[in-house]
Amino acid sequence: MSDLQRSFAKVKLAGLPAEPPLPPNVTIEENRFAEEDTDELQALPEPEQDEDSSSASSASSASSTGTIRPNSKHLFARPTGLSSGSRALNPLPWTDYFTQEYYLEIVHPDETVIHHAYVKLPGPKGPLFVLHHGAGSSGLSFALFAAELLKALPNCGVVSVDARGHGETVVKTPNGEIKGEPYDLSLDVLSSDLTNTVKLLQARLGWPELPNMVLVGHSLGGPIVTDVAWKGTLGHSVLGYAVLDVVEGSAMDALQKMNSYLATRPKTFPSVASGIDWHTRSRTLRNSTSARISVPSLLYQTPTSGTHLPGRGPWMWRTDLSVTEHYWENWFTGLSRKFLEAKGGKLLILAGTDRLDKELMIGQMQGKYQLQVFPDAGHFIQEDQPARTAMVVADFYHRNDRSALVLPPKVGEMLKPEHK
């Protein structure tokens, strides 16, 4: 810089006001990056992925009090791990989303099943939504969806079940011992379990008849609710059924890669928080709030190695999906045909139109069912985007609500004097 330029700069700077003081809630520590000349890239907190934020996953905005100079060596490096407490990973209680839980026991000749369900009872003449999760999941995967559905339909009820071998549902031998894996997870057994759970709840609550119902199933839950509707085991109370992100063709194709996917999952977690963290970081779940509700129910704590002390070892998956392999084709074979043939309204919500198979494409062109696509959601649609899913399901109920039908008067009545 020349002497003339220096003199000109001094004159201009002298006329500027003094630097304003820092706000009282900002410390020098917070501004250290503006004053330090560092070549080290600082780790930025990763934003929590909540509902409807998928579109913003590729871009983020952050405010900073200074400029950070990245080291070119680390420019494309993966961000370092977050320290504990950097973001909320603590579990959230189910009582924030359901009012009750029920343990409903049924005795079979070769076993006793204690079905577990999270419940919010319907109001007078309110509909009942029966929800069934997918393989390896639990009834709490519908927690946020249930809360949003109750906003849209305050008088409705919700029953979110745990399948056998999942969540809190327990199977016992005739001697009273708790059965372990492998469980009988054939489609006939699982659809019978769902029917039994609803009828046991009806008996427990003393309902003379079942309320109008909408069945909703995600992934494996889709074939189950479809099979119940197709068989008619819950009678004419079923107004319709909704299937979330599963169709026969793409499901059968995906089964070929299932073992590879399961091999990439961690076998254990050191804590529940680390399990929640893995689900969100891997984008298995794109809604961190839902992960904090549902993931704890997917894990259980093992005893310390070499001891029988409860609750001291690592956390493992409650359901070992690899041992269910011989049921996979049984779950999805014939799904498209049953979905189109069963009585009642039909709703299919997908994360992409590429998931439609030929039979469903033809049925869609013929107007046999309602199709909704959420391209920004992952596989767990009801967890990633609970508000949008609830809105579509509530609208589906209104479309199929028989109590809302107003029939026109008969021709004979129209010819009576009062109608002239």
Explain the layout of strands and helices.
Blueprint: H1 3-14, H2 32-35, E1 100-107, E2 112-120, E3 128-132, H3 143-152, E4 157-162, E5 170-172, H4 187-205, E6 213-218, H5 221-231, E7 238-244, H6 248-264, E8 268-269, H7 272-281, H8 288-294, E9 299-301, E10 315-317, H9 328-332, H10 335-341, E11 345-350, H11 358-365, E12 370-373, H12 381-384, H13 386-400, H14 411-414
Parallel strand pairs: 3-4, 3-6, 6-7, 7-11, 11-12
Antiparallel strand pairs: 1-2, 2-4, 2-5, 8-10, 9-10
> Could you tell me the strand content as a percent range?
5-15%
Order of helices and strands: HHEEEHEEHEHEHEHHEEHHEHEHHH
- Biggest β-sheet, characterized? 9 strands, mixed
Mean pLDDT across all amino acids: 82
The termini sit apart by 100 Å
Report helical residue fraction.
25-40%
Task: Write structural notes for this entry.
- With 420 residues, the chain is α/β, with parallel strands linked by helices.
- The protein contains 14 helices and 12 strands.
- It has helices at 3-14, 32-35, 143-152, 187-205, 221-231, 248-264, 272-281, 288-294, 328-332, 335-341, 358-365, 381-384, 386-400, 411-414; strands at residues 100-107, 112-120, 128-132, 157-162, 170-172, 213-218, 238-244, 268-269, 299-301, 315-317, 345-350, 370-373.
- Strands 1, 2, 3, 4, 5, 6, 7, 11 and 12 form a 9-stranded mixed sheet that branches.
- Strand 11 (345-350), helix 11 and strand 12 (370-373) form a beta-alpha-beta unit.
- It is globular.
- The relative contact order is 0.13.
- The model is unreliable at 19-86 (pLDDT under 50).
